[in-house]
Specification:
The protein is α+β, with helices and mostly antiparallel strands. The protein has one domain. The chain contains 1 helix and 4 strands, in the order E-E-E-E-H. The chain has a 4-stranded antiparallel β-sheet with strand order 1-2-3-4, covered by helices on one side. The longest helix is centred in the C-terminal third of the chain and has 22 residues.
Length: 92
Amino acid sequence: MFTRTKTRTVHFDAPFTLTGLEGVHPPGDYQVQDDEEQITGISWLAYRRVATMIEVVAGKKKSLVQIDPSDLDTALDKDRVLSGQQSLNTTH
């Protein structure tokens, strides 16, 4: 079966937590990897996500931690709301 890894960068403006990660993580850019496998037996090219991992740094050590992609989406949505509220508070 053919697999591929897609890498993307996500940005947090505020500290955040994610299920599977210990503690609160600082704002900034984080690399996220989505592992996908090709779906066979259909007449078009399609993939399904089989794993999502985020790269975290603790001191000098980098590690990839598997996370639930819906938890990441929720954390990013929450960050956008918090960022919007912070910018509203600073304009008044």
